[in-house]
Amino acid sequence: MESIHTDGAPAAIGPYSQAMKTGNLLFCSGQVALLPSGELLEGDVEAQTKQVLTNLKAVLEAGGASMGTVVRTTVFLKSMDDFPQVNAIYAEAFGDHRPARACVEVSRLPKDVLVEIDAIAEAR
């Protein structure tokens, strides 16, 4: 197993890795709307979702994967009312690629953000 780290995404805010690679699988920890500097991105769910996906893409690439090799994601929302906006940005980020996905509403997320997304991908 190999721990993956990139300065293109925020450092882990706890005792975990940005991602772990084992064989040709990359398990990405959940990304929230933190800038790579570690500062919280203020903004609505659209702005936060774009930052989350930017962070996720950076971690995927550091681990030898891409948005096009993601096999599964989990989307955590503070409010399911935000689903349409998040879904539209998510669809744009993945293009024609359609990984398996779960989407759940949760009572609270780290740093009180509005959205968090994790992923499992095939890596080279």
Can you describe what's shown?
It is globular, with a radius of gyration of 13 Å. The mean pLDDT is 97. By secondary structure, the protein is α+β, with helices and mostly antiparallel strands. The chain has a six-stranded mixed β-sheet with strand order 1-2-3-6-4-5, with helices on one face. The chain has a single domain (2-122), classed as RutC-like (60s Ribosomal Protein L30, Chain: A), CATH 3.30.1330. It contains two helices and six strands; from the N terminus they run βββαβαββ.
Short key terms for the protein model shown above:
60s Ribosomal Protein L30, Chain: A; alpha+beta; single chain; six-stranded mixed β-sheet; 124 residues; 2 helices
- The number of domains is 1
CATH superfamily: RutC-like
- Strand arrangement, major sheet: 1-2-3-6-4-5
Number of helices: 2
Instruction: Write down the Rg.
Output: 13 Å
Question: Biggest β-sheet: count, sense, barrel?
Answer: 6 strands, mixed
- Please give the CATH architecture: 2-Layer Sandwich
CATH topology: 60s Ribosomal Protein L30, Chain: A
Query: What is the CATH class designation?
Result: Alpha Beta
Structural class: alpha+beta
Kindly estimate the percentage of residues that lie in beta strands according to DSSP: 25-35%
Percentage of helical residues?
Answer: 10-25%
Low-confidence stretches: none
Shape: globular
Helix and strand element order: EEEHEHEE
Distance between the termini: 14 Å
